[in-house]
Amino acid sequence: MYSRRTQIGRFNSLPICALGKKKEEVMSLVKRTIGVAASVAVAFATFVAPAQAAPAGCDGDLKLVFQGALTGPAAQTGIGEYNGFKLAVLQYNEKRGSSPKVEPGFIDTQADPAQSPALALATVNDKCVIGVVGGMYSGETRAALPIYLKAAVPVISPSATNATLPTVGGDVFHRVVANDDVQGPALAKLAGKQPNAKVFIVDDQTTYGKDLATIVKKKLAKTKQVGSDSVTEGTTNFSSVVAKVKKSGANTVFYGGYYPEASKFVKALRSNAATKNVKFIAGDGVLDNEYIKLAKKNAEGTSMTAPYIPMERANKALAAIYKKEFGVAPAVYTLETYNAAGFFLAAVKAGKTNRLAILDYINKTSYKGVGQTLKFDAKGEPAIKVMNEFIVKKGKIEYVGAIK
Amino acid sequence: MSISKVSMPKFNLRDKFGDWWEGTSRNQRIVFRVALIGFFYILPFLDNPVFGTTESDFSSVLFYPMGMYVLMAIGLNIVVGKSGILDLGYVAFFAIGAYTHAILGISFGFNFWVNVVLGMAFAMLAGVLLGLPALRLRGDYLAIITLGFGEIVRIVAINVNFTGGAAGLAGIPAPPNFFGVEFLVDDPRPFYWLVLTLSLLTIWAYMRLTKRRPGRAWEAIREDEDVAEFMGIATTKYKLWAFVLGGAIGGGAGAVYASQVTSIVPELFDLNVSIMILACVVFGGMGNIWGVAFGAALLGYFPEKLRFLSDTRILFFGLLMVVMMNIRPDGIIPRKKREKVYDKNTGKEVLR
Amino acid sequence: MDFSIVVSEFASLFLDGIVVGAIYALVALGYTLVYGVLRLINFAHSEIFMLGTFASLGVTMLLGYTGFEEPIGIGLFLLTFILITVVAAVASGSAAMLLEVVAYRRLRRKGANRLSSLISAIGASFFLVELFRLLTDSKDWDFPRLLDKNSLFEISSAYFTADKLVVLIGAFGLMFALDRIIQGTRLGRGIRAVSQDEKTAVLMGVDVDKVIAFTFLLGGVLAGVASAFYMLFYEATKFNVGFLLGISAFTAAVLGGIGNIRGALAGSFALGLIQQFSSAILGYNWRDVVTFLILVLVLLFKPTGLFGEALQRARV
């Protein structure tokens, strides 16, 4: 046994025995074991323990969740919907009396079908969620529906139009926006009604616009159709489409799509001397004050259809409250979202507080909303088939009448 | 004064880890590997408010985007990181794999595993068809062509009927039960484990290849293609192999993804995905498979984790990319060991 | 497929193609100049353009012209429009220079590989898009109609309206001015020198930093002017308007031969025409497929682009 001093930098170490070298090893092994054990314990405390402490049922307020795009390219429409949703829930909570409070939640999918499943799964795992108002567009809705179906969470979408959604969503899926089966024929009728109608049909390749245009093409007499074209969302340069319209000699143009592109299209049409006076017809995706704001004078005379009465016309006071609360006028799907949320809240008011009861209520009863009545058929499509005609006159949207 | 192409930061994970790794024994390495792999497998059970993604389901995020990004980044790494072929249209392979499983699964009822193989096969075929003419070009021209290819695949998917058009396809079958493990729509965990296993297998296959001639050939091509050609390496053949193998991995990933989401639309396969995977490769450390996998996991994790920033999260994400590239241009775990640079006159080491 | 439209509407399609091409050209020049000196695809250039559109819009809002329906007199229009163009050019130009300093300069100094710069560019692009989305409330914004769009005269089926003429004259004027700058001024020669061979340029005493800053400034100014023309012509903008236009302009630059200024011009007009004619014949939805197919084919057979002088060897 001997000792030796070792020097480490400025510090002298204590004398260590040769046997101490083994002791050193043992000490370091012990230290490392303690270190590892401590890390495991900390990891356990951080990772595993909290996860197991999650409650089984709902321990707070009931939650109604909005699914849609609050950021990203489609945010304009999404925020318009979300505001309608928020207003409905806010008003309910103010006047709820003895009914349970409902908290408004949201999941921002950016209308991206890649993001919606993860968010939907988190939503259904939250036991306080009683239903979903959304999604906004068909792609993201369809990606989330299997999850909602499995968890029996009732869904009312204000604006998703794809035809396969009822199949994928089964019993839980419902939508406010009219199926093209109702709107398409109405638009075809409207287009064909024009004197010597020569109709040029354009769609924007979204599920909404393309399906609508397809039905119009089917229902409109072939002799009245003079041509068609497809653009994409985000198109700004319509000059080639206008050239085609000009060549076809059309006096009526039907556009299946949304208001941003429609406003640019109608501007391009009116700027060209040959197509200046064509009649412009579109569906409810264009029925928005923003359309008039963007297209200005060119919007004059546009005819549109929609399965509802716009909020400003149906309930001026509500529209004023909306404007005061959010600083903007109601947008293209605000009313549908407001009514969808309203249906859920009516269920809660009627005493239904769990998912299955609410699903049953939505399936069986009807709800008188603002500007429209919601009632769903067995597939979740609107059962009340109403279609209204509107026209832009003197820079304002005017109600013309119902289309039979 | 010497000019170094790679100026390594003073602190970097790769060197620290490399030094430690060299000091370990064989047993320690095995334990480390097993522990690490085990950790990844039990990750879905370790969901908690601090490290998990609170607003989206953690297991779902582990599958997509994290797991998918990792698998695709491994594939793209072979093309971009290892061989230096800039591919801006990688999403095309992903799309081909996804649509293969969707179409064959829905219309013909083919089994998932068959579709994965077929998806990879079709992606490889596309890789050959695109690669044969295009790989003759170099650098940015090749990049543009691959970008064009990616966009063409997406636009064709929108306009053609048998891919479902703009509405896409729904009702895609899930993988069949695997020894009692069910692949259900509301439980992403088996899917995550599937992706994890595939990733590990791919990494293993990749490590085998890189240690041998293909790997060395790819690196030679990346460093200087002309010299590689002079040294007798059949550059076109190896470049095509890199491209096709990368495509195969992308195709396989696509089929797995389609089986989990059960419904696909063309907008899922846009340029942003290609750019994202490329960012994973560069961000993680081009050519370094561990860096790439780690970078991919991070880039999949952060947008979901940052959801609490709601409105501004993409803003911060973009900022993160700029900052990261500026302070760590070679990625988080770069592939080169830090080169010691000596001052010519004094002979002393210059720290960069 | 309707080929007869090409015959009956040829002049109209041709004119529209040239006008669109002119706007593409101004943006494509930005891509090609930066690529020439840095070998970098400046992904964020499309956002520099988008920024210009909002700067243009901002001027009209400050002047109180929002919502204007009645066009203003020609004299007032010219003054206003020149002001808008100058403001947009300054805004975009300075933004471009700032972008270079923040996102690329450090990487260039460090000698980092090009892919890192590319990712930095992409990050900058994301950042700018999101920033403007938040600033503009994700909305579409409209631009007042300052100029009467009635047709001034016609040639065959083509209607020459005042705004198209403004765009054409302005764009061609700028291209000519740019050509003079590149050929005549010191910094312009510096750009050519650095594009050809950076190391030798340094040896010849060229201040590379200054040249690169100037290159970004030029590209930004051109994009700013392009954005003013765009607003005059299309009268609307949104935070993501840069993306589609950027892809087209970039494709145009590559088509003409990236790094080559005259190529960028040729490519832009070619692309504008291709887009117009292919949408008319095949339908708008096939427009991009045709564009990319043509791009791929051109690159396969003439990799340096239509008019490109080889700045680097294209083939292996």
Going across the biggest sheet of chain C, name each strand in turn.
1-4
Number of discrete helical segments of chain B: 13
Query: Main sheet of chain C, how many strands, which sense, barrel?
Result: 2 strands, antiparallel
Strand content of chain B: under 5%
- The poorly predicted ranges of chain C are 310-316
* Total DSSP E strands of chain C: 4
Mean pLDDT of chain B: 85
Q: Identify the most extensive interface between protein chains.
A: B-C, 52 and 47 residues
Strand order of the largest sheet of chain B: 1-2
Report Rg of chain B.
21 Å
The major β-sheet of chain B equals: 2 strands, antiparallel
Shape of chain C: globular
Number of helices of chain C: 12
First-residue to last-residue Cα separation of chain C: 39 Å
Strand content of chain C: under 5%
Task: Please explain how this structure is put together.
The complex is a heterotrimer of chains A (404), B (352) and C (316). Chain A is built from 14 helices and 18 strands. Chain A is of the alpha/beta class. In chain A, the strands form five sheets. Chain A has a seven-stranded mixed beta sheet, sandwiched between helices. Residues 1-18 and 50-55 of chain A have low confidence and may be disordered. Chain B has helices at residues 13-22, 26-42, 58-82, 91-108, 112-134, 139-159, 189-211, 213-223, 225-230, 235-261, 271-284, 289-305, 313-327, and strands at residues 169-170, 263-264, 341-342, 349-350. A two-stranded antiparallel sheet of chain B has the order 1-2. In chain B, 53% of the residues are buried. Chain C has 316 residues and is mainly α. Chain C has twelve helices and four strands. In chain C, helix 2 crosses helix 7 and helix 3 (45-62) crosses helix 9.
